[in-house]
Design goal:
The chain is mainly beta and 116 residues long. The protein has one domain: CheA-289, Domain 4 (OB fold (Dihydrolipoamide Acetyltransferase, E2P)). The protein has one helix at 104-114; strands at 3-11, 14-19, 23-28, 32-34, 41-45, 48-54, 61-67, 70-88, 91-94, 97-99.
């Protein structure tokens, strides 16, 4: 089936695959600023303000992704591995286990609904 470049991240304790094409950058724990009236936060990343969706409890990484043509940070994730992974029917294989892709747009929607 070929290989898929990207990273394996842990979201709420579950491994998920993020394709390299959607990953913009990864940063150590940034300082987040709350946005009044919004479930999103803001972070200063590489000289720019980035909206941040919280996917879980505080994690060690902020993964900045492209979703729907917009740059957004994903907070509450941990990067487990990066590289080329064997594609499988349901995503990729990592350490002999299937790993489903992370639907960034769906995760952002869930983060917005969780605080509504």
């Amino acid at each position: 089936m070929g290989s898929g470049a990207g990273m394996i991240v842990s979201v709420r304790g579950e491994p998920r695959f993020l394709p390299a094409l959607v990953v913009h950058s990864v940063h150590a724990r940034p300082r987040l600023s709350a946005v009044p009236g919004s479930p999103l936060a803001l972070a200063w990343v590489a000289g720019k303000v980035v909206p941040v969706a919280r996917l879980g409890e505080a994690g060690p990484h902020l993964v900045v992704c492209l979703s729907g043509g917009e740059v957004v940070g994903l907070w509450g994730v941990e990067v487990l591995d990066t590289g080329f992974f064997q594609k499988s029917e349901h995503g990729v294989e990592h350490a002999g286990q299937p790993v489903a892709p992370l639907d960034v747009a769906l995760e952002i929607e869930k983060a917005l609904e969780a605080s509504a």
